[in-house]
Amino acid sequence: MNSLLQTAEILVDPMLLAIAVIYIYGFIVRLTPNTYVHQIVMGVTFGVGAIFAMLMPITFADGVIIDMRNLLIGLSSAFFGIPGAIIAGGMGLVTRFYIGGSGAIAGMTGIAIATCAGLFWAHFVRGKLKMQGFELVLLGLLICTYLLAVVLLPTTIMWSAIYELIPVLIVFNVVGTVLIGSLMIREEGLAAENAALLNAATTDPLTRLQNRRSAVAAYNALPIPKNSRHGIAILCFDVDNFKIINDTYGHVWGDKVLAEISDRISKTLRPTDVFSRLGGDEFLIILPAVTEAETQQIAERCRDVIAQTDIADAGETMNVTISVGAEWLSERPDFLTFVARADEALYHAKKLGRNCVSFAWLNTATAAQAFSQATQNRTA
Q1: Which residues is 313 bridged to in the sheet?
Q2: Do 237 and 324 contact (CB within 8 A), yes or no?
Q3: Distance between CA 68 and CA 126 in Å, rounded?
Q4: Are 281 and 245 in contact (CB under 8 A)?
Q5: Over the range 303-328, which residues count as b (16 or more CB within 10 Å of their CB) and which as e?
Q6: Which residue in 165, 96, 173, 108 sits closest to 142, CA to CA?
Q7: pLDDT tier for residue 326 given thresholds of 50, 70 and 90
C-alpha cells in the first residue's frame, strides 16, 4: 500500500505541473497570435516538465525509473504539432540518455513511441469523432503504447513491471490525458473566441481589410521618419459614381465591386503597406518608408489596376474607375490632419474629371492638370 501511495504521489506531481503549464499556454496565446511561437514555447515548456519528471522518478530497479515524462511529451506532440514533438521529445531523449542505466534504451524507445502517438492522434483522430472526451481517452491509450518498450528491459524486470506498474500507469496516463487535454482544449477555445472578437473589432467584414480603428492604430505605431527623403504617405480613394452603380445594378453588385477593388489593389501593395476601408466606398492606404516618387508610382498603379480591366459577374461586365488623393510628408502629423490633406487632394481629383490621381504636395492647378492629362493619354 505504501509503495502504491508513493507511486501515486510521484506520478501526480508532474500532472499538477502540466496543469499549471496550461495557464502559461493561455497567457502566451493571448500575448501573440503566432501559432509557430506557441508551438515552440510550449514544446520547451512541456520538455522542461518531462525533465522535471525524470529528475524525481520512482526507481523501480537499478537503472530503471518510472515517471510521467511520456504523458507530457505525448501531449506536446498532440497539441503543438511537429515543433512541439521535436522539442519536447528531443529534450526527453537527451535527458534519458544522460541519466543512463540498464533501462535507458527502453526509456528512450518509450519517448519515441509517445511522441509518434501524439502526432498520430493529432493528424488522424482529433476532430474526427463526435465525442471530445472519447478522443482524449483514445489519446491517453495511444500514449500508453510507450509501455510496449518494457520488452526491452531485462526479463525479470520486465515481468515485474508488467504485473506491478503497467496497470497503474495506464490509469494515470488516461486520466491525466483527459484532464490536461480538456484544459488545453478549453484554453484553445478561449483563445479562438478572443481572436474572433479582435478580428471583428479591427476588420471590415465585406472586404476583409483593416477598418478605421486598426488603421489609426497602425499609423500611430509607425516610427517617425528619420530622413527627409523617406517619409510617410497616405492615399485616399473612392469609387467614381458609386451611387449610380448601386442605384442601377443593386447593392449586391456594389458589394461585388468593393470586394474586387480591394482584392486587386491588395495585390499591388507592399507587405508593409496598410490597406483599410473607412466605410462605404472610401478606402485608405498608408505607405510607410516611401519617397515622393514611389508614392506617385504606387498611387498610379492602384488607379490603373482598376481602370484597365472591367469587373465581371454572372456574364455582365462593368467598367469601374477610382479617383485617388495622395499626400506625402517627411514627418508624422496626427492621423486626422494627414487624412484631411489626402482627402482634399481626392476632392481635387474629382474636380479634374475622375479616374485620376491628385497629389497634395503638387499644389498648383497646372501641375495637377498636367499629371491628369498624362494619365488620360496613357488610358486612351
Answers
A1: 316
A2: yes
A3: 22
A4: no
A5: bbebbeeebeeeeeeeebbbbbbbbb
A6: 173
A7: very high
Spatial CA neighbour of 306 closest among 250, 263, 248: 263
Q: What band does 380 get if pLDDT is binned at 50, 70 and 90? A: very low
Q: For residue 158, give the C-alpha cell.
A: 520486465
Q: Which domains does the chain have, with CATH numbers?
A: 2-202 (1.10.1760), 212-379 (3.30.70.270)
Q: Which amino acid is at 220?
A: N
The tens digit of pLDDT for each residue in 135-178 reads 999 999 999 999 999 999 888 888 888 888 888 889 889 998 99
pLDDT on residue 370: 46
Specify the residue for cell string 448601386: 246
316 and 322 Cβ atoms separated by less than 8 Å: no
Residue 235 to residue 305: CA distance in whole angstroms: 15
Q: Which alpha helices (DSSP H) does 281-354 contain, by range?
A: 292-307, 335-351
Cross-strand pairs, 322: 239
For residues 62 and 101, what is the distance between their CA atoms, to the nearest angstrom?
A: 7
- Res 226: pLDDT: 82
For residue 231, give the C-alpha cell.
Answer: 517619409
Q: How many helices and strands, by DSSP H and E, does the chain display? A: 13, 9
Contact predicate 346/327, CB 8 Å: no
Q: How confident is the model at residue 371 (pLDDT cuts 50, 70, 90)?
A: very low
- Which three cell numbers mark 313? 459577374
- 18: which 3 cell numbers? 502540466
